């Protein structure tokens, strides 16, 4: 029995030895890797100006950013199906369904079923939801303006042109790589 304890202690001590760091075969410059840069910029913008998380806490309404994103999409586009909200947010329908469930309990959204296809449901803001949207949105617009302030008008136009080009290209790649089509 004591031999097992000694062996176990030796193995434990060996595992505590300092090990050298692994070496990667493929290195990348993250500052020139576009997906990383976009991720970082999105995270930085989310923490700039009027932070969404802080704005939501100030309202004392028990919703998170997931629910806010649904409210903001419905505020921008009007009534949409669950699938269209999911597409606008680049998320899955289950995430939207969970958010809608919370928002319905707060009377911020309501739904209507399609007369032709009962599986289709239109989600729309109630007046309470529209009022809540209008509390948060002006402050988010102000944050967007603070971020945009570093660009000249020409740079701003060029940035949006390039973002639109990238968006179209990514949609093309998504369709091209999707093996749904025969």
What do you see in this structure?
- There is one protein chain.
- The protein is mainly alpha-helical.
- The chain folds into two domains: 53-149, Winged helix-like DNA-binding domain superfamily/Winged helix DNA-binding domain (Arc Repressor Mutant, subunit A), CATH 1.10.10.10; 151-182.
- The chain contains eight helices and three strands.
- It has helices spanning 2-15, 34-46, 52-59, 65-77, 82-89, 93-105, 127-148, 153-177; strands at residues 80-81, 109-113, 121-125.
- The protein has a three-stranded antiparallel sheet.
- Helix 4 crosses helix 7 and helix 5 crosses helix 6 (93-105).
- The radius of gyration is 24 Å and the shape is extended.
Summary, kept brief:
The chain has 182 residues and is mostly helical. It contains 8 helices and 3 strands; from the N terminus they run ααααβααββαα. It folds into 2 domains: 53-149, Winged helix-like DNA-binding domain superfamily/Winged helix DNA-binding domain (Arc Repressor Mutant, subunit A, Orthogonal Bundle); 151-182.
Features:
8 helices; 182 residues; three-stranded antiparallel beta sheet; extended; single chain; mainly alpha; Arc Repressor Mutant, subunit A; 2 domains
CATH architecture of the largest domain, by name, is Orthogonal Bundle
**C-alpha geometry:** extended
User: What is the CATH topology of the largest domain?
Assistant: Arc Repressor Mutant, subunit A
**Radius of gyration from the CA trace?**
24 Å
Indicate the percent of residues in helices.
Answer: 55-70%
Order of helices and strands: HHHHEHHEEHH
> Count of helices?
8
Mean pLDDT equals 89
Number of DSSP-assigned strands:
3
Using the coordinates above, name the CATH class of the largest domain: Mainly Alpha
Strand count, sense and closure of the main sheet?
3 strands, antiparallel
| Main sheet strand line-up | 1-3-2
Distance between the termini: 65 Å
Low-confidence stretches: none
Number of domains: 2
Q: Could you tell me the strand content as a percent range?
A: 5-15%
CATH superfamily of the largest domain: Winged helix-like DNA-binding domain superfamily/Winged helix DNA-binding domain
